[in-house]
Amino acid sequence: MSKTAVVYWSGTGNTEAMANAVVKGAKEKGAEVTLFTATDFGADQVADFDAIAFGCPSMGTEELEDSEFEPMFSAVKDQLSGKKIALFGSYGWGDGEWMRNWEEDCKACGAVLAADSVICNDAPDDDATAQCEALGAALV
After folding, report:
1. How far apart are the C-alpha atoms of 35 and 24, rounded to whole Å?
2. How far apart are CA 131 and CA 129, in angstroms?
3. Phi, psi of 34 (to 5 degrees)
4. Domains in the chain, please, with CATH?
5. For 38-83, where are the E strands, in sequence order?
């Protein structure tokens, strides 16, 4: 059985809703899934999982949330080489630049993106929810 972690930060609940859809998709494919907030996940846990989905909304000038999520991600990213991962998050403005930059950062550290990243404007609609479920399934 595949062990999958879903790690997220959410300020408004939008990215949390996306995380729950990712969990649902992975569980439906038979994965053992653990849901973490960014403050509850660390570098010492990366090796415990076959795949990890990371979720963070766009903040500021299209960047990762910088007080909890970004420090956690910086601490784990050097251990993502060869690891199957997926990215998701919501935004309220901009064009998704934060996600493109985040994907490039992950590729540079050797992570394997298992699926196209999922972004949605504000709360996830039915289409974004379905994309998140498919993202979770792709990790299994």
Report:
1. 11
2. 5
3. -120, 130
4. 3-138 (3.40.50.360)
5. 51-55
Tokens of 67: 């007080």
Strand-pair partners of 35 = 6
pLDDT tens-digit profile of 25-73? Answer: 999 999 999 999 999 999 999 999 999 999 999 998 899 999 999 999 9
Give the global pTM.
Answer: 0.97
| β-strand partners of 87 | 54
pLDDT surpasses 90 at 102: yes
Give the Cα separation of 103 and 88 in Å (integer). 10
Strand 118-121 versus strand 112-113 pairing type:
unpaired
In whole angstroms, give the CA distance from residue 69 to residue 38. 5
Q: Please choose, from the candidates 126, 35, 139, the residue with its C-alpha nearest in 3D space to the C-alpha of residue 83.
A: 139
Strand stretches in the chain, DSSP E: 3-8, 32-37, 51-55, 84-91, 112-113, 118-121
- DSSP annotation of 5 reads E
Strands 84-91 and 51-55: parallel
